[in-house]
Amino acid sequence: MVKAIRIYETGGPEVLKWEDVEIGEPKEGEIRVKNKAIGLNFIDTYYRKGIYKTDLPFVPGVEAAGVVTAVGPGLTDWQVGDSVACSCPRGAYAEEQVLPASIVVPIPPSIDPMVAAAVTTKGMTAQVLVQRCFKVEKGHTVLVHAAAGGVGSLLCQYANALGATVIGTVSSEEKAAQASEDGCHYPIIYTKEDFVSAVKKITNGEGVHVVYDAVGKDTFEVKF
User: Fold this and answer.
1) 164 assigned to some structural domain
2) Residue 42 and residue 48: Cα distance in Å, rounded?
3) Element (H, E) at 99
4) 115 CB-near residues (< 8 Å, 6+ apart)
5) What CA–CA distance (Å, rounded) separates 90 from 190?
């Protein structure tokens, strides 16, 4: 038995129950992982509140990092003691979990498990946005809304590393400083100035090649 947080009914934080659960041994194609760090994401609260539907009871949590404690039959790519991270449908709020090996990635020794657990899901989101939704290249100019947020901070770093000029919107001086540290060349405090006018000034009226919007309602329908 291991300890895990289980939810029997949707609601506030009070529905989170810390209890013993039986997870069993890994089957073919699976590994068992002892978690060292567990990520906290907004989607976890959406499932807890019932905004996103799932069968009850369930163990929340979509990302974690830890050490392999058992390997299922037929697997040769993983060994007990390997450091790994995962992005999983649910189940990360637990001391240990059994996972499909296909959703687990190795953690290099240089990356702390706490860092890995914090950036795996958001990092994959950033990779899809920068490489697949729109392939950012050197010479592009990108606009990142919520540039100091979880995904936004990674987008700033990623786009900057690819040679793009990064413009970001934030709500405060503190967040502007954070965005700058993360590679945003032009942080705009939208509570103090109109970001559309600022973007036009920065780009000499040309606009940007792509906009990444993690805000939604307040920014989506703004016209350039």
Assistant:
1) yes
2) 10
3) strand 96-100
4) none
5) 35
Q: Could you tell me how many helices (H) and strands (E) the chain has, helices first? A: 6, 11
- Among 110, 5, 3, smallest CA distance to 47 is for 5
Contact between 85 and 79 under an 8 Å Cβ cutoff? The reply is no
* pLDDT of 166 strictly over 60: yes
- Single pTM value for the model: 0.83
205 is written with which tokens?
A: 């009226």
Contact 98/78 with Cβ under 8 angstroms?
no
User: First-to-last CA distance in the chain?
Assistant: 57
Asked if the model's pLDDT at residue 66 lies above 90, the reply is yes
Which among 170, 123, 180, 118 is positioned nearest to 149, based on CA atoms?
170
Per DSSP, 133 falls in state I
Could you list the residue range(s) of the whole structural domain that residue 164 is in? 134-220
Confidence at 140, pLDDT banded by 50, 70, 90:
very high
**Other beta carbons less than 10 A from residue 53's beta carbon:** 9
The closest alpha carbon to 101, from 125, 121, 119, 74, belongs to 74
Domains: count for the chain: 2
CA angle 162/163/168 to nearest 5° reads 95
Q: Let me know whether 148 and 104 are in one domain.
A: no
